[in-house]
């Protein structure tokens, strides 16, 4: 059977697959705009991996770079003549400059590690961040003279970005780089916070009153402007030079402010895919309407030469005659041998994560974001007819669902480490268990659909096999936490079988024991 399946995959997906074109570009305003930098009335930003400039009032943008590598983190010199940015012209991400109006880029760093432009000093030097000068994986700030390429390392460990009030200081900086996740209201050990550093003195914290994120300090008229999630969402705030009298400036409730840039009393920042400008004196905030005159090549209809590279789910039918496949968010069914290849989902803008057959073999259970959240839907396996949404009320990501053999229930886990059992007929959703130690996995129904075996992590992180009685909701430990146990399976007999090994055994490897 395994050999047949491999042949089927190659036969059905060995050819190319047409990927539909994206929606109409709405006059060139469907760009994704990042890392804005502002100087007077000019805003430079990143889109499609290139640098663009646009008037602060909006309008048609002008492309400044065309290289196939990524250009990012632009910053405009104090005199408005030169643009510094990070780019990959020769491979590594290094610091480059070019005229603000456009021109030939000039390379300034040769560190071989990522060099991220942070901004300019008031006397016309480039401030960038790198790990090149750290013996530990810490980010440090470096002052670069673009005329001579002479560098001065700022004597601060873990400084990731910042701005000078004067050429002599002080430097207001963010301690610690971005910690790698977009967890809302993060308050962990690598949370970013703001500090003040005067040369010859010890750095002092400015935002120690708040345990969450504070970053991107910018100085203007005696106050520090920065981004923080003090109200639950990342917004613009300001405070005095000593970190006192914080004041909220923007009040976004859903999406985070990111990459703010300040010049001449105006702050330009990114909000999801758009650019906004906040005027400090008038306390007004508005979107910059950017028209991107691009051919949007990445949005064109194209053929994928090997769809198997994008295969995310493959499940056999109950009789083994077909297989349900998910590739690039679309659901297909393919025969094992001769038969009709079916595309089950056809709507663009909707993504499926997994699909498997119901026990009847006629319908599929599909985990899809059609409703805006990850919910389970029932779809005809032959592609004829409408899909039906089964579950509702999802608040976090749900994982692949497993129908019971009698087709009456659906068991699944979610990212909040909860185990759920859904009654399909009554639409009743019951939380069966919660694990404080990790995700549930290896769900498997008994042949009579009365029991559900699953694996959870014990307090010492060893895997245990548990047994849920569906009628009563009672959970029984089948194995203890002395060894790793995993991969439960139900034979035709009434008793279960499972594998149990010592700690050295991989917890996700199926047992070879009978």
Main beta sheet: 4 strands, antiparallel
Question: Compute the gyration radius: what is it?
Answer: 28 Å
State which percent range the strand residues make up: 35-45%
Helix/strand structural class: mainly beta
Q: Which strand order do you get reading across the main beta sheet? A: 2-3-4-6
Shape: elongated
| Helical run tally | 1
In whole angstroms, the N-to-C terminal distance is 20 Å
Number of strands: 46
Helix content: under 10%
Overall pLDDT? 89
Please sum up the structure shown.
The chain is an all-beta fold and 514 residues long.
Per-chain topology:
Layout: H1 2-13, E1 17-19, E2 34-39, E3 42-47, E4 50-55, E5 59-60, E6 62-63, E7 71-76, E8 82-87, E9 94-99, E10 106-107, E11 115-120, E12 126-130, E13 140-144, E14 151-153, E15 159-164, E16 171-175, E17 193-197, E18 204-205, E19 214-220, E20 223-228, E21 235-240, E22 247-248, E23 257-263, E24 266-271, E25 274-279, E26 284-288, E27 290-291, E28 302-304, E29 311-316, E30 322-327, E31 330-335, E32 342-343, E33 352-357, E34 363-368, E35 375-380, E36 388-389, E37 402-403, E38 409-413, E39 418-423, E40 428-434, E41 441-445, E42 451-457, E43 463-469, E44 475-477, E45 484-489, E46 497-501
Parallel strand pairs: 5-27
Antiparallel strand pairs: 1-28, 2-3, 3-4, 4-6, 7-8, 8-9, 9-10, 11-12, 12-13, 13-14, 15-16, 16-17, 17-18, 19-20, 20-21, 21-22, 23-24, 24-25, 25-26, 29-30, 30-31, 31-32, 33-34, 34-35, 35-36, 37-38, 38-39, 39-40, 41-42, 42-43, 43-44, 45-46
